[in-house]
Amino acid sequence: MNSRDKVLDKYSSKIYKNRKEHIIQFEEGEPNLIAADTRAIPGILTNRGCCYAGCKGVVIGPLKDVATIVHGPIGCSYYTWGTRRSKSKGDENTKDFSDYCFSTDMQETDIVFGGEKKLKKAIKEVVEIFNPACIMICSTCPVGLIGDDIHAVAAEAEELYGIKVLAFSCEGYKGVSQSGGHHIANNGLMKHIIGTGDAEPVKYSINLLGEYNIGGDGWEIERILKRIGYNIVSVMTGDGSVEEMKNAHTADLNLLQCHRSINYIAEMLKTKYGTAWLKVNFIGLNGIKKSLRDVAAFFNDPDLTARTEAVIADEEDEIKEAMAAFKTKLEGKTAAVYVGGSRTHHFINLLKSLGVEVVLAGYEFAHRDDYEGRQVLPLKMDADSKNIESIVVEKDPAKFKTFHTDEQLEELKKAGLPIESYDGLWAELSPNATVTDDFNHFETEEFVKLLKPDIFFSGIKDKYVVQKAGIPSRQIHSYDYGGPYAGFKGALNFARDVTLAVNTPAWDLVQAPWKREPTLEGSLGGTE
Ligand code: CFM
């Protein structure tokens, strides 16, 4: 029995029937079909978040010049504030509200009598105290249940204060995971922000999509891109701003780092404004080098190409020796990587370059295309996916522009440039890796026992369970308060953190108290 079957064997027949579709033993050259983006089984401790987490926490949250009001009980705000490590910096032209947490703090009376009044009051207060150019309202579960019309409140406030006010009906229960929230956020930004600016297009301009500046990743990527000579119009949404995003339609090319959370905007920008997109991965040396060369090939300018090679050589040179030294300490180790919807794939080439093999991989809420590649699109809709609105955009004749003609794009594709395509996790996964979609705590513990990875990459929900079992863990969502891990210098940070984690003698000293001494103590009494 392989490890997959051993774990599945412990389930009741009903759960087995469901989970067997979500767990596979990856085989190279095989179709490796996997079920994904379906409802988690009630009672299973899934690692997933909710729709509101995906909208407010992931996509909207990092926008620094927006005052985002959470319409709901205070707990929902607390858990999306100050935890995701999407770093930001304001300057004299851009206000940064990231240090604040705005919430309507709904109480029982608001739930019973309606919360619109409280929301209006909160907007007034935010305008008077902070004077933002844009307010976004994100609703949490009870708002959808009691039917507050946040869109009407937003429209009224927009009139009243003469600023942009957007509302997102991203109640936590919508869809099956945070993925639905990404989609809702993408729709709102596309409808109301992107394309509303009137900046003139600039040369070699790009948007960086699906980069959230966790631990400063986005800053490191921007530094490299600017060094080569690209003009960055907007970053969506790490350290991003509405001011920049308004002009996103003027860019020549969209680079897509996280496919899962923002492919909707990439597709809509293509249809409405003609902008081509390219999937990139700025994590890991092979990923970065390929991405930079692909972008250069798209623009096909000899100067840009030469600068790309010079920057690659220079940046790589700086870290080469140290990377090689860390590799000697990591060679032959194995890893488990369980993250949200794209990073599992992104980190594989970085781990491989350090001699570490991924034996256990998984996503929380990825869709089938993130595993198997976009050729599986379009996917069949079910009742849950139909709940999330899919908007249709049309060509904007006044703002539509393309860097290449369709024929030129076809030529580039034929030459091997992955324009508007994504091969998914399978493209880089090692044969025989075990893959678990929507992994839960039971499976995590069982697979870790069976496969005994030397290091476990995931998040705060499972980190300490694994560490208590004597296996080091690094969080790949938050980077454990370290980072950046993107770019050349980021790769070095990662190599150092992993080397220290794996090689510390502490893990050999971890022993559960019940293994050292018996938990039950007693003595036999006399016979009398
Ligand atoms: Fe994209 Fe992300 Fe991810 Fe994601 Fe996330 Fe994140 Fe993630 Mo945590 S947007 S899908 S919803 S890369 S917060 S920055 S690390 S689960 S793999």
Low-confidence stretches: none
Strand adjacency order, main sheet: 1-12-11-10-13-14
The biggest beta sheet is recorded as: 6 strands, mixed
Average per-residue pLDDT, rounded, comes to 96
Question: Helix tally?
Answer: 23
The count of DSSP E runs of length 2 or more, i.e. the number of strands, is 14
* Backbone structural class: alpha/beta
Categorize the overall geometry: globular
C-alpha end-to-end distance: 54 Å
Radius of gyration: 24 Å
Share in helix: 40-55%
The hetero compounds bound to this protein are:
FE-MO-S cluster
Q: What portion of residues belong to β-strands?
A: 5-15%
Nutshell version of this structure?
The protein contains 23 helices and 14 strands.
Description of the structure:
The protein has 528 residues and is α/β, with parallel strands linked by helices. The chain is 44% helix and 13% strand. Strand 2, helix 4 (74-78) and strand 3 (102-103) form a beta-alpha-beta unit. Helix 6 (116-130) runs parallel beside helix 8 (150-161), helix 13 packs antiparallel against helix 14 (302-330) and helix 14 (302-330) runs parallel beside helix 21 (487-503). The model has no long low-confidence stretch (mean pLDDT 96).
Features of this protein?
alpha/beta, 13% strand, binds FE-MO-S cluster, six-stranded mixed β-sheet, 528 residues
What does the secondary structure layout of this molecule look like, with pairings?
Blueprint: H1 3-8, H2 13-19, E1 23-25, H3 51-60, E2 66-71, H4 74-78, E3 102-103, H5 108-113, H6 116-130, E4 134-139, H7 141-146, H8 150-161, E5 164-168, H9 179-192, E6 205-211, H10 217-228, E7 231-237, H11 242-245, E8 253-256, H12 259-273, E9 276-279, H13 285-299, H14 302-330, E10 334-339, H15 343-353, E11 357-363, H16 368-372, H17 383-386, H18 406-414, E12 434-437, H19 441-451, E13 455-458, H20 460-468, E14 473-475, H21 487-503, H22 506-509, H23 513-516
Parallel strand pairs: 2-3, 2-4, 4-5, 6-7, 6-8, 8-9, 10-11, 10-13, 11-12, 13-14
Antiparallel strand pairs: 1-12
The chain binds FE-MO-S cluster.
